[in-house]
Amino acid sequence: MKTIIHNIKTIYTSKLKPPVKGKDMASIETIDQPYLVIEDGIIQVIDKGNYHKHLDSDTEIYDAKQSIMIPGLIDSHTHLVFGGSREFEFSQKIAGVPYLDILAAGGGILNTVNATKYASFDELYEQAKKSLDEMFLFGVTSLEVKSGYGLDLETEMKQLKVAKLLNENHPIDIYMTYLGAHALPKEYKDKRDKYIDQVIEDLNVIHQEKLADYVDVFCETGVFTAKETKKILTAAKKLGFKLRVHSDEIESIGGTKVSINLEAKTVDHLMAITESDMELLAKSNTIGNLLPSTSFFLNKEYAPARKMIEKGMALAVSSDYNPGSTPSENYQLTLQIAGNKLRMLPTEILTASTINPAYSLDIDEFVGSIEVGKSADLLLLDCPNLDYFIYHYGINHTHSVFKKGKLFIENRKVVDE
Ligand code: NIG
Ligand code: FE
Q1: Could you tell me the distance, in angstroms and rounded to a whole number, from the CA of residue 414 to the centre of ligand 2?
Q2: Residues lying with their CB under 5 A of ligand 2, a single-atom ion
Q3: Residue (of 150, 143, 158) closest to 179 by Cα position
Q4: By CB distance 3.0 to 4.6 Å, which of 86, 239, 337, 364 could disulfide with 359?
Q5: Of all helices (H) and strands (E), which one includes residue 73?
Q6: What pLDDT digit, counting tens, does each position of 81-138 carry?
Q7: Residue 415: how many CA atoms within 13 Å on its side-chain side?
């Protein structure tokens, strides 16, 4: 099956080998007025001029109508699968009750844990699918999904099995992370060590059942200490899991150093990161995964992205979609907040939403940039240029979405089969 996409205004893509660090993040190649030939889902030709020599009798031709093209977006930190929602905590939140106080009082994550436990597999599936469909409309073509709203093996597995089935049924590719250490369950209040041992034991089952490639821990004051984080991550690494870590979201308590030493793929949040940890990260291959929508929604500090780039770190930007700290599927808005609040350049943001997150998920060989030989995961935007995409905020700029060479979305609507 051959498809030609023509009448593209400009292609914007990174072509550097990831992790793309520091000032290289702004290095984006542009190709004006190109066309693309796709065969069996793979980009075969990127060229300019007359495409007619590539035409066969059954070639499909797609007119991009002078939209611009970027790689399909890769959101590498989400909590897609959960029960219920938390709008009933919103008034508390805007009245200034701190996130960790709501959690310490048995609310926050623990409320969602309850709702997730009582939700059936089908309910969780339907709710997550609805969000996934929404993310697709915003141009996301690969997605990381964490568990962490079960805090018992059965419910954690239910979440991961929902994600697995969605991966089989939905065009978006999903990569799964086990986050059993997302909060201490109420019933373990006075026996923390027991819960940590339980999480470590459960890792074996997750591994045997092939329900996740990654393990994550929420390392934070009042949640899990750096020492506990190290214990869980070390056990996970031994089993062959790759690591992603919630660290320095509210306070810096040592999780970032632990993660770098264990060669984690990402450390995520980093609003409270120290300068010395930025320097360590810059020397490592661990990606700093920034989640600016969370700062926006929690009315918190933003991660010091400019300083991180100056120091030579490799950054990704992710949505952190979840019911507590970022209840929005609009990944384009996350990228626009990265522009306005992290003060990242549109070119840096493109690197942070394509090739660097692809690297963090070990999928950079086949997605994350528009190059011959890679999967045709492509996002066409109704924008005159890349700057406009980041500057004109709050709307969906999607013109069309191709996943593995197939057109799924056009004019912000799902294409009928
Ligand atoms: O990444 N920080 C920890 N976990 C999520 C929030 C989860 C929740 O509040 O439900 C986050 O922000
Ligand atoms: Fe998160």
Answers
A1: 28
A2: 320
A3: 150
A4: 364
A5: strand 73-75
A6: 999 999 999 999 999 999 889 988 888 999 999 999 999 999 999 999 999 999 999 9
A7: 13
